[in-house]
Write a structure and sequence with these properties.
483 residues; mainly alpha; Arc Repressor Mutant, subunit A; three-stranded antiparallel sheet; two-stranded antiparallel ribbon; 7% strand
């Protein structure tokens, strides 16, 4: 049983208004014991542990509640609070006290269960580096090492790595869904759109590029699936003596994997690796792509809202007013009179009788609405209506920024294919996805963009299949330009 002996009330310290302080103390202690800054040559005594907890309490908030928890005691100072937290963690099985029999000195450390439960809290805070996109290659390498050397530990490593492939996919999909919900909450709460946009670009550049891009390319399960399947088939075709030795070693070092005593554990492990690779390629990878597509579409809405909110800064009328303010009063009056004459549209004239036509009147249809009842629109309905309108009207790509991006991509030339557009960040990726809108965008009096479809399908680093277009810069009245 898990809840036995000193773990009978293991989670009680995390069920009070001091829970955030206790979690912060656990994270700080974990960093001091197991991170890169840890000093493994010494053990922590009570005084050092209290000092660590005092530093953590400065950063941790106190969660106020209406009713005080009966298991908590008020602290009058940070040191007293740190001592109280230490006693709580010792009493409920998170920490343990070790006594040196030679010097009779006491030291403190995590219990095995306490360390295992503190590790996810540290990883949730994002303070540890983790290579989350190498498990597919690790599975392949471990299987190859097993076939070359015959050590069952390599086979068990491949079995463990294949399990991590599924868990890593699940972690990334859950993170994408959480970030999408966070974006929706920020828009729903009418927070600053610039903050949401910065969060999106920060995620795309620091998380998507180094991790997901590698997962979908260099470490793609589709890339290594056939190779791993070939290694599994080779392992199944090994000699009977090889498989018998591996079976004995597996039953000796991993008895917890034995389900049916009559079934071969060697074949069970191989079947498990094969099943996980199939699930990763057929289920988890499409789910990851769908979650990423859904997240980018939602972020696209935020970015378009940002472009709408900043459109007022490019208002030509405001620039004209500023220029008029800098002119002398006489010149201002002359320009305003000239503008008034141009804007004047009043034209008095007689109506031409020949232009008058008598149209046959239509019979208006009468609709009986006596049985219809229209209730008042409640607050939830108004909120849904606002979100619906925001989603439909958001994300218009700024035509000025679009033209500047394509002009910079041309780099002095006059012709460019859509798959050759440079993509250095997420903004340029969205610009390249909307490049065909240049054909309908406004053009200057001298130059214009011409976008023509070649009818061919191409693939890029970001799209599996897309139509190919040719973007060409032409002068007005000229049919073609040299590339």
């Amino acid at each position: 049983m898990f809840f036995s002996d000193d773990r009978k009330h293991f989670f009680r310290p995390l069920n009070s208004k001091y829970r955030e302080q206790i979690v912060e103390c656990l994270r700080e202690l974990y960093a001091c014991l197991y991170s890169s800054v840890a000093d493994y040559r010494r053990a922590l005594n009570r005084e050092q542990l209290v000092e660590i907890f005092q530093e953590a309490l400065v950063r941790a908030p106190l969660l106020d509640e209406d009713v005080a928890n009966e298991h908590t005691a008020p602290a009058r100072s940070e040191r007293e609070q740190a001592n109280w937290i230490l006693n709580q963690l010792l009493d409920y099985g998170w920490l343990e006290r070790l006594v040196d029999e030679a010097t009779l000195q006491s030291s403190y450390a995590f219990t095995r269960v306490g360390r295992l439960f503190t590790q996810p809290m540290v990883e949730t805070a994002g303070g540890r580096f983790r290579t989350r996109h190498r498990n597919t290659r690790n599975t392949r390498n471990a299987m190859q090492s097993f076939l070359d050397k015959g050590e069952v530990y390599d086979l068990l490593d491949a079995f463990e790595y294949s399990e991590r492939i599924i868990s890593d996919f699940s972690d990334v999909i859950a993170e994408l869904d959480e970030r999408k919900r966070q974006l929706v909450r920020e828009v729903e709460a009418q927070q600053i759109v610039q903050h949401a946009s910065d969060e999106f670009f920060d995620f795309m550049e620091k998380r998507f590029m180094p991790d997901l891009a590698v997962r979908l390319s260099a470490d793609s399960v589709e890339k290594y699936r056939d190779e791993i399947q070939t290694l599994i088939n080779n392992a199944r075709r090994k000699r009977k003596e090889f498989k018998a030795d591996a079976e004995r070693e597996l039953r000796k070092v991993a008895p917890e994997l034995i389900g049916d005593p009559k079934r071969s554990l060697y074949l069970t492990v191989l079947d498990g690796i094969e099943s996980r690779m199939h699930s990763a390629a057929e289920t988890m990878l499409p789910a990851l792509r769908h979650a990423l597509n859904s997240f980018t579409r939602r972020a696209d809405i935020i970015i378009r809202q940002l472009s709408y909110s900043t459109a007022g800064h490019q208002n030509r009328l405001l620039e004209i007013c500023q220029q008029l303010c800098e002119l002398p009063a006489e010149e201002q009056a002359q320009r305003l009179v000239a503008a008034g004459e141009v804007l004047s549209s009043l034209n008095v004239a007689m109506v031409d009788p020949g232009a008058l036509r008598i149209h046959t009147g239509r019979v208006r249809r009468v609709v009986n609405t006596t049985v219809e009842s229209h209730g008042e629109v409640d607050r939830e309905s108004r909120k849904r209506l606002f979100l619906h309108q925001a989603v439909e009207s958001a994300f218009a790509v700024n035509s000025q920024a679009q033209r500047e991006y394509v002009v910079a991509a041309l780099s002095g030339g006059h012709r460019l294919r859509s798959q050759n557009l440079p993509v250095h960040n997420a903004k340029e990726l969205l610009m390249s996805a909307h490049v065909i809108e240049l054909g309908a965008a406004g053009n200057s009096s001298e130059y214009r963009f011409q976008v023509e479809a070649t009818g061919q399908l191409v693939s890029t680093d970001y799209f599996e299949t897309c139509d190919e277009f040719v973007i060409e810069l032409k002068e007005q009245g000229q049919d073609s330009h040299a590339e």
